[in-house]
Specification:
Layout (H helix, E strand, L loop, with lengths): L2 H18 L7 E6 L1 H4 L10 H18 L2 E5 L8 E4 H6 L4 E2 L10 H9 L3 E4 L8 E5 L12 E4 L5 E2 L2 E8 L17
Parallel strand pairs: 1-2, 1-6
Antiparallel strand pairs: 2-3, 3-5, 4-5, 6-9, 7-9, 8-9
């Protein structure tokens, strides 16, 4: 698969998630990405910086345009730590940890984010601060999204060979049978 096609798929998916989740400037968008799965291999077996860079470029360009912040999830070898800009760490009061992701210990996507961000830091958790996100290849991102996490169906179903699952948050419903809800928040 051509890297330009992967970049386009990633950008389209990011646009679709941002639109469907009704994201705003300042929201946090989490991405877990298996470059192995995108390449048609088993997760964690064929990490590819080239593939990760194409995905990163596609997603990051969309998020920057909309002033939405990116959190790049590391793999399980780093306990799913996340790479964010230092300003995001401060704004969301996250706890910085000391690790620099590598393609085989953190994943190629997180490694790319660490290299491309202006002032990257690793954090051990987003404390459920993300408003939406993309799981590219079975990386499990739901734990980072604000409750209540709901699946998000978008037109793009795959990036490369990887299954794409997306999620967003919705505010909790309070009240009961007599409660009236704001339809725009559903």
């Amino acid at each position: 698969m051509e890297l330009s096609h992967i970049r386009e798929q990633a950008a389209q998916a990011a646009q679709q998630v941002c639109d469907a989740a009704k994201l705003h400037a300042g929201d946090l968008f989490v991405v877990g990405c298996s470059s192995s799965e995108i390449s048609g291999e088993k997760i964690g077996t064929h990490s590819s910086v080239d593939v990760a860079e194409a995905v990163f470029d596609g997603i990051y360009s969309v998020l920057c345009e909309r002033k939405i912040d990116l959190a790049a999830q590391c793999c399980e070898h780093l306990n799913r730590a996340l790479i964010v800009e230092r300003t995001v760490c401060s704004r969301f009061m996250l706890d910085e940890v000391n690790v620099v992701p590598q393609p085989k210990a953190g994943g190629s996507f997180a490694t790319t984010a660490y290299k491309r961000f202006a002032d990257p830091v690793a954090v051990d958790s987003l404390k459920q601060s993300a408003a939406a996100g993309m799981d590219i290849g079975g990386t499990l991102i739901g734990m980072h999204i604000k409750p209540v996490v709901v699946p998000l169906r978008i037109e793009t179903k795959q990036i490369g060979s990887a299954i794409l699952l997306c999620a967003r948050r919705r505010p909790k419903f309070v009240g009961g049978s007599r409660a009236v809800y704001n339809e725009k928040l559903l």
